[in-house]
Inverse folding.
């Protein structure tokens, strides 16, 4: 595979993280459950970037937060290096808290406005008593330079920075504890295009330098495709398709992925005027007490009786290309060609 | 030039704040033709919303200062109208859709109530008396026209019971309920998913074709621009740096900021090995805008003159203009290929 990550070694025999039948329900009423994540399975190899895309509210952040151990699970398990993360205690829990860091969407809300940049970046190192104060300061300066800021910025407060600069501070904070795995939850969605590219380049460089593994969450498929080795497409708590980035773009199989790809406007007027869109019928369903059937049922033009029998499991149709659709391999036939 | 629906002439707008004078618009010019779709593009804080809100004079009188210029709507200067005259224009002749439909819909009233109110208010002004029953019927029709099924149920619901996409479609329905001459849409799809975004864009195009309205759409998504716009203006740091047809901007761009914008966007068909080329640095502080070209601190081509003097507007063909010293015939630099940054000195 030729891709931007060719400098990092993706170890395909060794999944760093395995998510198995993960469920996270939120109780929202007496007998009402919001099924934010409803039984998803995927794995992420050491050194790779796994992109997670999908509409607002489909459960991407909930998945990321579950991986960061911010939630107790309703069902399923998450394995890190083969070990169940819910069983981590004491040293193992601390180790995991070092290894797995999050970078958030909103660079404004995720930084404490009363703390200086230095104390924000140093916080993790201090909590975990990693270095003495001199070493800590040196490390902060080093990190600030790594993310394109400098030591003059250390004494300043978050409000004195632009959105892109604040996101750099957030990344420096995440890197401070020498993590192995970054959950990047929409790290550039709040930024301007020209600034987005700065941050994406930074994340790519850091990945190479530190051999990091990324779960990259975003709703912008063009961006996710550019950055990821493999991509998972979510819809209403289900993972509907997983494939290598190029493959997903060239040969989307799931009816939802096809509609999604056809809906993304391309920045070229001539191409745009010639494209045909797959328009979706109906509206996004409520995630509350969703029935045990394909989540895309209400909007799918191929919907039929077997789609309601159960939530279709994710199955491999061709090597590395997985879909969760009752029609399964038939989608690859002429009858269902786009 | 009599066929312009809207003509903005040398508009300068400032806000007086505790921190000082924010020079939000530094003298902008553009026109919108009859049933034309114009896209306004630019980074956060460059003045897109201020431009849109100035047209409808939505700002608080105490802070805003219209320092100079005219906003001509069918030849009449909106800045010279009284508040009462302005009210007749708002919503009826020029409608606006805001980025966040939640803030512009009243959370305590049903959707039906809000739409029928708009209908009744306008029929009053027109002098026809529509009764509640007819208004309800019209409201259901409007909701259906923006692609929402089950209109009778939806009319009884409150804004929070609808998805973001549905709320935005309702806003469009309300905005279109009085067939405005101009529809101004400030980032109407930014908060929405791409599948819903595609529906909204189709809807706006259909309305433009059907009712002949002119549309001004503010966005920072170049894909949306390519999809819907006939003309485009590119803003940077409170000024218009380039404008032209959609083809001019995408295929024959002249301004270094437009080049940077086109180089830094993610494309689905982009090769991963092709590096992303960001624009380094950050946008100017409008409390103290630079003396010369606002893009000079981030521009790869900036010359001495750029930092000292604001470039004038240079024309290329009928509608295409660019405010950049590179366009001057005396400019010593020649940009051979902006994609590769290939620059030469003219001998
Ligand atoms: N603490 C909570 N309590 C109740 N519901 C929640 C909670 N957190 C998330 N949800 C709901 O779970 C669903 C999934 O939310 P999540 O934040 O994971 O979506 P997302 O895919 O990240 O969306 P976005 O693109 O908007 O960030 C949504 O319907 C959301 O409203
Ligand atoms: N009411 C106000 N008081 C003071 N300054 C203001 C006010 N409204 C806008 N500004 C300033 O004017 C400039 C232009 O703002 P504007 O809202 O037009 O930006 P924009 O291009 O719409 O950006 P965005 O893409 O973030 O919506 C900004 O520097 C902003 O801070
Ligand atoms: S005027 Fe000068 S600084 Fe401004 S865009 Fe043109 S070359 Fe760059
Ligand atoms: Mg999220
Ligand atoms: Mg705005």
């Amino acid at each position: 595979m030729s891709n931007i990550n060719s400098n990092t070694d993706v170890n395909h025999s060794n999944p760093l993280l395995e998510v198995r039948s993960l469920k996270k329900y939120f109780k929202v009423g007496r007998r009402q459950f919001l099924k934010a994540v409803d039984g998803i399975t995927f794995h992420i190899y050491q050194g790779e970037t796994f992109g997670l895309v999908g509409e607002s509210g489909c459960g991407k952040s909930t998945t990321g937060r579950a991986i960061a151990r911010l939630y107790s699970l309703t069902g399923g398990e998450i394995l890190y290096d083969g070990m169940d993360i819910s069983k981590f205690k004491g040293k193992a829990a601390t180790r995991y808290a070092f290894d797995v860091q999050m970078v958030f969407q909103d660079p404004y809300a995720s930084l404490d406005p009363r703390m200086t940049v230095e104390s924000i970046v140093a916080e993790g190192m201090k909590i975990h008593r990693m270095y003495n104060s001199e070493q800590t300061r040196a490390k902060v300066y080093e990190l600030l330079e790594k993310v394109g800021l400098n030591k003059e910025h250390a004494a300043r407060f978050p409000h004195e920075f632009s959105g892109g600069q604040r996101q750099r501070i957030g990344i420096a904070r995440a890197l401070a504890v020498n993590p192995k795995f970054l959950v990047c939850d929409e790290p550039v969605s709040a930024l301007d295009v020209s600034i987005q590219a700065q941050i994406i380049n930074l994340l790519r460089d850091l990945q190479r330098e530190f051999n990091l593994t990324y779960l990259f969450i975003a709703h912008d498929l063009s961006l996710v495709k550019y950055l990821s080795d493999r991509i998972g497409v979510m819809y209403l708590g289900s993972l509907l398709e997983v494939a290598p980035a190029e493959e997903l773009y060239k040969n989307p199989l799931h009816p939802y992925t096809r509609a999604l790809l056809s809906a993304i406007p391309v920045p070229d007027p001539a191409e745009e005027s010639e494209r045909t869109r797959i328009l979706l019928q109906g509206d996004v369903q409520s995630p509350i007490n969703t029935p045990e059937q394909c989540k895309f049922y209400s909007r799918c033009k191929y919907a039929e009786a077997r789609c309601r029998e159960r939530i279709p499991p994710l199955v491999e149709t061709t090597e590395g290309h997985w879909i969760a659709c009752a029609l399964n391999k038939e989608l690859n036939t002429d009858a269902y060609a786009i | 030039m009599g066929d312009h629906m809207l003509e903005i002439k040398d508009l300068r707008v400032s806000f007086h704040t505790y921190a000082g004078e924010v020079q939000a618009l530094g003298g902008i010019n553009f026109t919108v033709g009859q049933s034309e779709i114009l896209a306004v593009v630019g980074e956060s804080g460059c003045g897109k919303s201020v431009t849109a809100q100035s047209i409808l004079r939505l700002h608080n009188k105490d802070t805003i200062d219209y320092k100079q210029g005219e906003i001509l709507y069918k030849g009449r200067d909106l800045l010279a109208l009284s508040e009462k005259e302005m009210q007749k224009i708002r919503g009826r002749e020029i409608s606006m859709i805001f980025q966040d439909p939640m803030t512009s819909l009243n959370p305590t009233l049903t959707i039906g109530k809000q739409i029928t109110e708009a209908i009744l208010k306008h029929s009053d002004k027109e002098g026809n008396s529509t009764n509640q029953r007819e208004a309800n019927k019209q409201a259901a029709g409007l909701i259906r026209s923006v692609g929402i099924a089950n209109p009778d149920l939806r009319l009884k619901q409150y804004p929070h019971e609808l998805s973001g996409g549905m709320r935005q479609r309702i806003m469009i329905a309300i905005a279109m309920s009085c067939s405005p001459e101009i529809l101004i849409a400030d980032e109407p799809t930014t908060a929405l998913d791409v599948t819903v975004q595609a529906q909204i864009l189709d809807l706006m195009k259909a309305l433009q074709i059907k009712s002949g309205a002119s549309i001004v759409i503010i966005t920072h998504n170049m894909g949306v621009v390519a999809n819907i716009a006939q003309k485009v203006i590119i803003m940077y740091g409170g000024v218009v740096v380039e404008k032209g047809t959609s083809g001019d901007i995408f295929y024959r761009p002249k301004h270094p900021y437009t080049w940077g914008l086109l180089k830094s966007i993610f494309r689905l068909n982009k090769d991963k090995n092709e590096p992303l080329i960001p624009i380094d640095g950050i946008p100017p502080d409008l409390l103290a805008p630079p003396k010369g070209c606002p893009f000079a601190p981030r521009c790869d081509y900036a010359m001495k003159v750029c930092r000292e003097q604001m470039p004038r507007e240079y024309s290329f063909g009928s509608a295409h203009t660019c405010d950049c010293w590179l366009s001057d015939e005396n400019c010593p630099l020649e940009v051979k290929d902006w994609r590769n940054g290939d620059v030469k000195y003219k001998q």
About this structure: The pocket of magnesium ion (ligand 5) is lined by residues B 48-49, 186 (CB under 6 Å).
